[in-house]
């Protein structure tokens, strides 16, 4: 056995928060990172971090609480998220936020309200986006002499119930096996870079663009499953429009309709975002055209000439608005406002932002086997974990929950 206390797999938000927490506790830690640098999807993210925060919310008269955050997540995920995991996250988020600030990370002074949340509780780093967590945590880890081994691809685990768990990884031409004293924390991100895993679990997303790190391909997840870990919610994904200008067009369902390549409407446009995306993915080419009637922020909007194939759909929708009844799809009459001319057209092709499924864990970040028993010495945090959010996840909950469960995992590994 080596003199290593803990191995952490992956150097994104979860991995670096776990590493920093572990070195604060005086542990001898090795981080194995497949890439030539740290960051993963965290480094590409917008950096939004959700948490109740009385210090920022109270002065602006926002009366939020971990319980309200819990209920928001449960509802947004259609009741499918595991309540004990959501509770652990929402009741731990403020501690994680305070910890980051305590060690010197800087968030903006105000909070914002992201889609899917009922209260302004989203925090943004002052300097940059997701990469700012990585740069900050890395600089502190370097000065604390934590070892990060880049170009180290974890390919398997060795489990023998009488021995601590071992990690097998490839580095250059070498295959190395290490056995840490307290365990292994899996922080290798989601699996969306694997089109095979994505399409097996949700075939409508086959070939869809993934906005995160190409290194997050689910290899560690499947290796954990090879030693008996259970996966959960593998068909749930967080989707995105991938373009803020297009996102703006979709804000008010009264101001747009969606039409498919055949020129037909195919759903009510007041569906919530994940259902709207699913309806679009069911159309040929997995995309749809947006016909937008609003003026948005652009006072110079002019009538757009639309393609002939869309004329019928537009005429039928105008009629539905006149009689305040969308018989074809049942859009709420509240949104059936008088339609002027089309001011913009754009193509909506949903993209993948995150996987919401992954390893089944308990509230102590223990990875569970198929009998729902903890696998000794194996923990997980971040996007590799499934089951927290259910069918949908609000913007800003992934990073915060990665930080919370990373810290939980380290304490659980030490049983403190
Ligand atoms: C464009 C975009 C914007 C987003 N914005 C936000 C946001 O503002 N707020 C929010 O909460 N969420 C956001 N998300 C989601 C969020 O970024 C991720 O869920 C989160 O960063 C995951 O963190 P993580 O630490 O689990 O994984 P990652 O940050 O992806 O880190 C995983 C690491 O593991 C490494 N790894 C993978 N396989 C192996 C292996 N076999 N061996 C060794 N290492 C391995 C990877 O190289 C990577 O460095 C966004 C996602 C995208 C795509």
Automatic annotation (TrEMBL):
Pfam families named in the record: FAD_binding_2 (PF00890)
Keywords carried by this UniProt record: FAD, Flavoprotein, Oxidoreductase
Cofactor(s), by name: FAD
Segments forming domain FAD-dependent oxidoreductase 2 FAD-binding: 5-392
Example GO molecular function: oxidoreductase activity
Gene3D superfamilies referenced in this protein's UniProt entry, alphabetically: FAD/NAD(P)-binding domain, Succinate dehydrogenase/fumarate reductase flavoprotein, catalytic domain
InterPro entries given in the database record: FAD-dep_OxRdtase_2_FAD-bd (IPR003953), FAD-oxidoreductase_2 (IPR050315), FAD/NAD-bd_sf (IPR036188), Succ_DH/fumarate_Rdtase_cat_sf (IPR027477)
Protein name, UniProt field: FAD-dependent oxidoreductase
Organism: Parasutterella muris
The organism's taxonomic lineage, starting at the top: Bacteria, Pseudomonadati, Pseudomonadota, Betaproteobacteria, Burkholderiales
């Amino acid at each position: 056995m080596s003199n290593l206390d803990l191995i952490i797999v992956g150097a994104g938000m979860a991995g670096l928060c776990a590493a920093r927490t572990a070195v604060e506790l005086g542990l001898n830690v090795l981080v194995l990172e497949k890439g030539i640098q740290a960051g993963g999807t965290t480094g590409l993210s917008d950096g939004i971090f959700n948490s109740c925060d009385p210090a920022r919310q109270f002065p602006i008269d926002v009366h939020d609480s971990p319980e309200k955050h819990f209920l928001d997540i449960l509802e947004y995920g259609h009741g499918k998220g595991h309540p004990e995991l959501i509770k652990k996250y929402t009741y731990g988020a403020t501690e994680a936020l305070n910890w980051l600030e305590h060690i010197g990370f800087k968030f903006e002074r105000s909070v914002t309200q992201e889609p899917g949340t009922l209260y302004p509780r989203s925090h943004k780093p002052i300097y940059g986006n997701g990469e700012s967590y990585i740069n900050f945590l890395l600089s502190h880890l370097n000065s604390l002499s934590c070892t990060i081994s880049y170009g180290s691809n974890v390919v398997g685990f060795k489990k023998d119930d009488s021995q601590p768990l071992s990690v097998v990884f490839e580095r250059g031409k070498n295959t190395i096996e290490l056995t840490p004293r307290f365990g292994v924390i899996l922080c290798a991100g989601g699996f969306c870079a694997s089109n095979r895993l994505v399409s097996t679990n949700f075939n409508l997303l086959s070939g869809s663009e993934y906005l995160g790190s190409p290194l997050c391909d689910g290899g560690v997840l499947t290796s954990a499953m090879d030693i008996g870990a259970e996966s959960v919610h593998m068909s749930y994904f967080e989707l995105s429009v991938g373009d803020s200008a297009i996102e703006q067009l979709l804000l008010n369902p009264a101001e747009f309709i969606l039409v498919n390549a055949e020129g037909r409407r195919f759903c009510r446009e007041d569906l919530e975002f994940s259902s709207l995306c699913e309806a679009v993915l069911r159309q040929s080419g997995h995309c749809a055209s947006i016909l937008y009637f609003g003026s948005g922020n652009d006072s110079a909007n002019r009538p757009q000439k639309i393609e002939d194939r869309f004329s019928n759909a537009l005429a039928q929708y105008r009629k539905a608005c006149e009689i305040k009844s969308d018989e074809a799809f049942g859009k709420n009459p509240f949104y059936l406002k008088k339609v002027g001319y089309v001011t913009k057209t754009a193509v909506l092709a949903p993209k993948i932002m995150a996987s919401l499924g992954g390893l089944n864990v308990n509230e102590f970040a223990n990875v569970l086997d198929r009998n729902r028993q903890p696998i000794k010495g194996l923990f997980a945090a971040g996007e590799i974990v499934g089951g927290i959010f259910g069918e949908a996840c609000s913007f800003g909950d992934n990073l915060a929950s990665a930080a919370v469960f990373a810290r939980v995992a380290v304490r659980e590994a030490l049983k403190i």
